[in-house]
Every structure is written in C-alpha cells, then in structure tokens.
Amino acid sequence: MTQPIDDLRRMSDIEPRQSWAPFAPLPGRCRASARRMPGLRAVGAWAQTAALACVTIGAIALGTASSAEAQAQYPDRPPRVVVPFPAGASLDTMVRTVTQKMSEGLGQNVVVENRSGAGGIVGIGSVAKAPPDGYQFVAVANSFVANTLLRNDLPYDAFKDFAPVTLLGTVPHVLVARRGLAADSVASLVELARRTPDRITFASGGNGTSSHLGAEMFMRAANIRLAHVPYRGQGPALVDVVGGQVDLTLGNMPEVIPHVKSGAIKVLAIVAPKRSPLEPGWPTLAELGYPSVVSDSWFGLMAPAGTPADAIARFQREAARALASPDVRDRLAAQGFVPSGITPDEYRAFLQSTAAAYKQVIEAAKIKLD
Fold it and tell me: At a CB cut-off of 8 Å and minimum separation 6, what does 255 contact?
C-alpha cells in the first residue's frame, strides 16, 4: 500500500517548470486554479482536463461578452434604407424626415437610397436579396401588400422574405373633384352618379393601388358606379383632375392641399376616422354616412428575413423616438402625415389585417392587373 504513495511523492517533487509546462499558454487564473486542486500535480492528465475545461468556460464567457459588446455598439456603420419610389413622393418625404432624426440617436447617418422601378418592385426586390445583417432596410407602402394579392410574378414573398420593423405613419386620402364638376358635396356626387352610372370618371394611381381600392370601397358603400381611369402613379392622376381631364380622384392629403388652396380642385371629403387638425373644415366620409370606407396611404419599414431581432428592435425604437420628437411630429403634421412608430409585432398584425381587407375588396370588385 505504501508503493503508490511513494510514487506520488516522487512525482510531486518534479520541477514545477517541467510539470506545469503544458499549461504555460493557459490563462493565469486557469493555471492557478489547477495548481490549487489537491493532487493534480501528481496526476497530470486530470490537471490538463481541468485546465482545458476552465479555458472552455472562459471562451464561452468571452464570446458572450463580445456578443453583448457588439450589440451595444450597433450600428457601427451607416444603415441603409431603400425607398423604392422617386424622390419627392410622400413616402420619400416621410422617410427622409424620420431618418434624419434617427441618425442622432443611432450615432450613424442613415443613408436613404431611391431605387424606383416597376411600381416599387425593383427596390423592394433588391433588399429581399440583401444580407440580413441589420444594415439593410426598405420603405414600403400599400402596394407592398396589394401586389401579393394581385401578382404571381413577384421576385419576393412579402410575408416570408421580410421582417416587420415599424409603421412610420399614414396619410389620409382626400376625395377631390375637378373644379367644373356639377357636384360640390358627397351627397350631390352620389345623386349625380346614380342618375348617370359609369359616366363620372375616377382616376387612380393604377389597378390595385390604394386609391383604386378606396374608390371601390366607396362605390360599393354608396351603391354607385364610376368609370375607372388607371394611371401610372397617383401624381399623374391628380394632375389630370387638376387639368379637368378626369372628374375625381383620391389623393394624398399633402399633395392635394396646394391645388385646393389655389382653387384648381375642390374637396368633397377626407377619408379618415376624424377630421384633420390641418384642415378641420373638411368633412369625413364617416360623418357623411360611409364609415366602412377606409382609404389612406401608409408607410412602413421592413428588413430582410433573418435580420437579428436586436437590430430590428433598436431601429424601431429610434424610429419611434424620432416620430415622437416635437420637431419631427410638427413637420409631418404640417404636411398631413399621421405618425405611428408601433412595435414589430403590432406592425405584423397591421399588415395581416390590411391584407385581409384588401383581399375582400379585390375579390368583390374582381380587380385584376392589366
């Protein structure tokens, strides 16, 4: 029984530099911990196993700390927001106003890139293929949802290839008429349309656009028929109403206000739950007896599917802060925007409910793209 003990004693007398040489590269705390373990100088294999375990735990802790540090430093370069429509449109205006303020909170400039084409599909598709690294975002509007119900040739799936970030806000639609139309109110318009079905023309930004869907809702609610004239964008549609070539349109509030003030067109109603503080004299369709009609332009942010949740949460928080700041809120309100800033989960629910409403109108009106 004494032989094993004597062997251990002889092994314990080995020169420390030699016995602990295999652990020289290890962190000091691991070497110290191994030395303090009883008998490990005698049983080198046990000591090595213990030391390696210590290193493994240390590496995990270091990795966790590095990950937390990386999250704390996000973003460490400028994020990019693609606007899939030309500069100057309502979506572009809102995105630039909000991201300018967001840059202050993020500590990085948010780069806004206009990439238009194919009704927004080109720009949206480019972000669908972008790396989900937390630095790629795209601004979207109503067509982002409507196109999924109207087209089968999209290079992306709106609900599978993207992650919701936040709803930036909405812009009420305003039902406006050319100056010479023999109707100065919704009631007189409905009466005229019933006497002359399919004779009054209605301009939209194109088949399946928000202005088209809103008009279909109004026609069904009022039991009237208007002649639909689709344009390539809401801007040209409004121009032709101003010019008198078309009778009616549903225009974005910021875009119709200058023409209303100049007397080029007249307002019949604003399509909103309540009157706008910007133009409190404009009646709502709801108060005129059509509460089921909902028509507006909404603008939101999406990220490629797989984008880290922490990056999405940070971007949403900064967007919400920007939208709540007095200077941004006042600038947007002066143009007719209604700011939002809801959470990603709330935005997802909004997109799903919007898709359900659009589907009902599209199927009832048998809307198809040309």
Answer: 90, 234, 235, 238
pLDDT digits (tens, 9 = 90+) for 258-283: 999 999 999 999 999 899 989 999 99
Place of tokens 């009609």: 293
**10 falls in which pLDDT band (50, 70, 90)?**
very low
CA atoms of 182 and 235, how far apart (whole Å)? 24
Measured at the CA of 27, the angle between CA 21 and CA 32, to 5 degrees, comes to 70
The token pair that represents 195 in the structure block = 């006497």
Burial of 359 (0-12, 13-18, 19+ CB in 10 A): middle
Q: Give one DSSP letter per residue of 206-253, joined into a string.
A: STTSHHHHHHHHHHHHHT---EEEE-SSHHHHHHHHHTTSSSEEEEEH
What amino acid occupies position 300? G
Please answer whether residues 327 and 101 qualify as being in contact, where contact means their C-beta atoms are separated by less than 8 angstroms.
yes
Summarize pLDDT for 333-354 with one digit per residue, the tens.
Answer: 988 899 999 999 999 999 999 9
Alpha-carbon distance of 227 to 283, in angstroms, equals 24
Distance CA 113, CA 351 (A): 24
Percentage helix, strand, coil for the chain under 3-state DSSP, each rounded to 5 = 50, 15, 35
Q: Is 48 helix (H, G, I), strand (E, B) or coil?
A: helix
Q: What CA–CA distance (Å, rounded) separates 117 from 108?
A: 28
